[in-house]
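Final report, Chapter 2: Outcomes

The project's central promise was a pipeline that accepts a single protein chain and returns its three-dimensional structure in a standardized token representation, suitable for archiving and comparison. That pipeline is now operational. To close this chapter, we reproduce one record exactly as it appears in the project archive, with the input sequence first and the structure output second.
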Amino acid sequence: MKESRVVVIILLITFVIYGVFYLSTRNIEIPDNQAMPWQSYINDQGKTVVFDLTMGESTLAESMRLFGTEVKASLFEDKDKKQNLEVFFSSTKVGGISAKVILNLALSNDQFDYLNSNIKENEVMPTGNKKISFNKAGEASMFALPIESLTFIPSADLSSDTITGLFKQPESVNLVEPGVEYWHYPGKGLRIIVDQENKEILEFYNTKL
């Protein structure tokens, strides 16, 4: 009986210590080595930095040191011929947070021509958009490409209270459709898609959305 009381007391003390630590550190100055999504910021060059990756500068190879090497790269082309080169990390963990990560890579004309000569599979999706995958040579050529944007999808649902607790209040909110809102954080280079039915999506860009 005494042992159980001791365990309860230890657990209570641990909880109190953790609470004090959290409350005393939630507003500390952002460290140089970025680790968490709410620590993103705009640097002196006007570029968004998140997870110590600078949009428009850091490369796919640099991101793989953080998110892992299990990736899938695809080039998407819509009906208007607009193209997006995406790299998908289906399962990663950053700062203890499990998530999916999507990177949009900047694609030059020369790189596009090279990828066109290294296509592995070309499929038309139900929407009419094209999805193109590449062979090993094509994928290897992407390692030095800079990251245009980063999408972070946490495995756990984030409530509105959790979001404001971590990211503070957004500068503006746009209602896209019933149950779906865009929360804008221009000072963090961030837009959060808050969806009552699905996972929240964090999008980090250099340009304001």
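Archive annotation: Residues 2-34 have pLDDT under 50 and may be disordered.
This record, like all others produced under the grant, will remain available to the consortium after the project formally closes.
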